[in-house]
Amino acid sequence: MTAEHVLSPVARSTTRTDLVADAIRTAILSGRLAQGETLVERRLAERLGVSKTPVREALIGLAATGLVVIGPNRGVTVRVVGRADLRKAYEVRLLLEPWAIGRTAASGHAADGARAALAEARALLAGTDTAALSLANRRFHRELYARCGNELVVAQLDTLQDLAALGSVTVLWRDRPTWPEEHEEHETVLAAVEAGDPALAERLTRRHIERSVARLS
């Protein structure tokens, strides 16, 4: 399936580049644009109903976050995430995400979005759509760390979560599907956040990520 057949036109907006970037990011993370696939500006622009300029700007932005690679010969391709790449992403997450989720737990913010994402993931556990499950897991994590009060940490974690979502299906879950175990771990993290216990939320998040790192060893 080529890139022009897996994207829908975006609505007109003054932030068209952001909308285009979001559309391409979602297609990549859902697997509709495969790792290693070449992305042609003209075809993407036609399918999205925009000019090539916002597509070009969006691809430059996605290259900065590591989701696509701009090469001298092949143009722009979707990044291929290997085991070493995924391990590095998890190691940096380990430094930032426990702290961020602990801050969210201390803030007293409602965790309704995380609860909804967790329910979506639960409904997908018995199926075969691992890409959708990976995206639901990404939304769950983001709903928790995005309320930490530090936009620099959130931006860094967004990039790391993109790489984690991209690599989970093709690397982490390929040899040994662990999503039922991860779902149970998510339940305990969310319970700690909802209870307003930052120390427990931080400790459980750290343990959750450490287990993912161990699975990559």
From TrEMBL:
Superkingdom assignment: Bacteria
Domain named HTH gntR-type: residues: 14-81
Keyword Transcription in record: yes
Q: Which PROSITE patterns match?
A: HTH_GNTR
Q: Which GO terms describe its molecular function?
A: DNA binding; DNA-binding transcription factor activity
> Record's SMART domains?
FCD (SM00895), HTH_GNTR (SM00345)
Pfam short name (any one): FCD
Q: Which UniProt keywords apply?
A: DNA-binding, Transcription, Transcription regulation
Q: What is the designated name of this protein? A: FCD domain-containing protein
Recorded source organism is Microbispora catharanthi
